[in-house]
Structure formats: structure tokens, C-alpha cells
């Protein structure tokens, strides 16, 4: 029998950030400004209370996977390597229309989070958040990193020999990620620093 897979070390992407701020504290500061402004609209564009990323604990759940903190109120926070445990937390804390968020032609956020939960060794989610300073406050997924797939022949010019469609068909079949409008806009083979020596395919939607 093969040896059981050893548990991975905790995700360390956030350690690369040399700042005392966290996503939660930055968004809590934005929320305090919103609440202190009598002219500020109390709801997001989709009807949620402004600051729901803070009050629901979403910002705290994503913090270990943050790769970029916003530089100002208009800037995005970015995350990568979001794993099955965090995905399960988000599935519990997000409401149906928040889970239905879609980055243009990508699968829905809920679909990608469920894939991460169902395939904890093979799927990590990446994307961004918009803070409560803006009325389009949200968390969204731009794609996934998929481990354990064959090394397909994916070419930059996607000529007739390119296997990008075969790779995407394999992902849909194995992971059940079936609600994308189109296949991924970019497919790259990469090695993430938090999982050295484990190549993965990054699927990204613009």
C-alpha cells in the first residue's frame, strides 16, 4: 500500500507581508469610516450590509492566504492557495448570492469552493476581495490551482496540437466544476512556494 499522505504545513503566504496590518483590521477601519459618514449608503450594490466581509468573519478566514493587502480604499486584496478548510468556512459564512459571485466567465465562487472541499489535496482557490469602502464589496474567485494532473502539452499559441481543451475537460470531469461560461482564459504550469516540488496547473479567468 502507498504511504499515507503527510499533512501539509500551514499555508505561509501571509508571512511574506511585512506589515502589522491584517485584512480584517484594514477592512474594519474602512467600515468605521463608512459608518461615521452620514452620507454613506448603508448597503452594498447587492443589498448586503456594508462591512459584511468584516462582520461575517470572511476577512479573518482569508487572512492566512493573503498575498497582497490593499494600498488604499480602491485597491484590491488578493489571495492564493485557499485550501479546503478555509473553503468550508466560507461556504458556511457566505449567503447564496455571495456564493453565486462570478468573475466574468469563470465558474461561480461557490462551485470552486465546493471543489476545494471535495478535493482537499488537489484544489486551491485564488482571487481577490473588494473592501467595505466600496459599494461593490465582495469576495470573488479568479480560478484554481489543480495538483495531481498529468503534464499536458499546453502551448502559448494554442495551435492544433495544444491540449488545453483536454486539460479543461479533465478538470470538469474530475472536479465537477461545470458552471463556467467558458474554459479558462489562461492555463499555466507552475510551482507554488508553499508546496515546493508539487507542480500544479493554474486556471485563471480574466
Give a description of the structure.
With 206 residues, the chain is α+β, with helices and mostly antiparallel strands. It has one domain (43-204). 28% of the residues lie in helices and 19% in strands. It is built from seven helices and six strands, in the order αααββαααββαββ. It has helices at 23-35, 52-55, 58-62, 84-93, 96-99, 109-118, 164-175; strands at residues 66-68, 77-82, 123-130, 138-147, 186-191, 199-204. The protein has a six-stranded antiparallel beta sheet, with helices on one face. Strand 5 (186-191) and strand 6 form a beta hairpin. Helix 4 crosses helix 6 (109-118). The longest helix is centred in the first third of the chain and has 13 residues, at 23-35. The chain is elongated, with a radius of gyration of 18 Å. The N and C termini lie far apart (42 Å). Residues 1-7 and 12-19 have low confidence and may be disordered.
Search tags:
single chain, 206 residues, alpha+beta, 7 helices, 6 strands
Amino acid at each position: 500500500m502507498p504511504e499515507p499522505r503527510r499533512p501539509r504545513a500551514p499555508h505561509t503566504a501571509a508571512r511574506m507581508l511585512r506589515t502589522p496590518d491584517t485584512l480584517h483590521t484594514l477592512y474594519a477601519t474602512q467600515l468605521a469610516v463608512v459608518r461615521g459618514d452620514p452620507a454613506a449608503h448603508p448597503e452594498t450594490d447587492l443589498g448586503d450590509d456594508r462591512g459584511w466581509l468584516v462582520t461575517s468573519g470572511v476577512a479573518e478566514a482569508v487572512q492566512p492566504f493573503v498575498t497582497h493587502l490593499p494600498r488604499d480604499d480602491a485597491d484590491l486584496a488578493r489571495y492564493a492557495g485557499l485550501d479546503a478548510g478555509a473553503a468550508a468556512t466560507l461556504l458556511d459564512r457566505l449567503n447564496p448570492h455571495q456564493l453565486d459571485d462570478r468573475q466574468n466567465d469563470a465558474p461561480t465562487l461557490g462551485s470552486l469552493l465546493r471543489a476545494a472541499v471535495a478535493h482537499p489535496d488537489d484544489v486551491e482557490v485564488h482571487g481577490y476581495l473588494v473592501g467595505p469602502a466600496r459599494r461593490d464589496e465582495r469576495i470573488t474567485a479568479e480560478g484554481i490551482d489543480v495538483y495531481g494532473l498529468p503534464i499536458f502539452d499546453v502551448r502559448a499559441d494554442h495551435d492544433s496540437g495544444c491540449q488545453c481543451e483536454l486539460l479543461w475537460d479533465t478538470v470538469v470531469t474530475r472536479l465537477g466544476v461545470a458552471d463556467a461560461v467558458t474554459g479558462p482564459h489562461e492555463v499555466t504550469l507552475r510551482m507554488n512556494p508553499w508546496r515546493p516540488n508539487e507542480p500544479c496547473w493554474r486556471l485563471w479567468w480574466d
